[in-house]
């Protein structure tokens, strides 16, 4: 690669340590550069597909004089859908790049329960349309220090996926809990679990689903209007707000996503 300036030094402990540090750093730079290049190439590919469909559809209309009105309507509708898809992809790409560069937004105490109730309200029409029921098991006192819009985005993406990748008649369980830290001195954690009874994610795909553009079933994601960016936005946003997120298979079926944030106890009790 471009960063091939490896340093080898024998002897002196201090020098060896410095050389190791230098080599480790160049290694990391190379990875960042690769990740960036990969991202641009993946993004271009994702944008090219709908653009190619739009070209194809317009060409068919323009080159076929005798096309009946109904077919024209159908093609134009498809063009509209592809344009909508492009909009969704670019919006999400902007969200991701903005996270890299934008100054940190307002952070404050947020009641997670209130955020989840807003997300539930937004998702009810979609859930109703595919006959999936939402079960909310929420408690008071789950306050975290975070950006409210970020929490909304995290919960929305997870709950929307739980509906999208479900089966007719299936369920989504959203639950809030408080958990004690494992070691003495660890504070409490606010734990948000989003479980579904849906199609599930194969064990071997689980480590990859937070990667940008990764989709287990491309056709299904596409049909559901997916971009493969939702979970990478979830991961970045969770980390930015000091939390953790993981996904595992749910027994007997479906998927379970768990997000943990340090609980905020309020100024008067001496928060972190
Ligand atoms: P998409 O826009 O495709 O939904 P995401 O980044 O949100 O992208 O999710 C990545 C992929 O992970 C999805 O395409 C889907 O294959 C899988 N996935 C995400 N959530 C679930 C879920 N609750 N159940 C099953 N598969 C899921």
TrEMBL record:
It comes from the Bacteria. The keyword Transferase applies. Residues 1-34 form the HAMP domain. Residues 42-265 form the Histidine kinase domain. It catalyses: ATP + protein L-histidine = ADP + protein N-phospho-L-histidine. This is histidine kinase. Its EC number is 2.7.13.3.
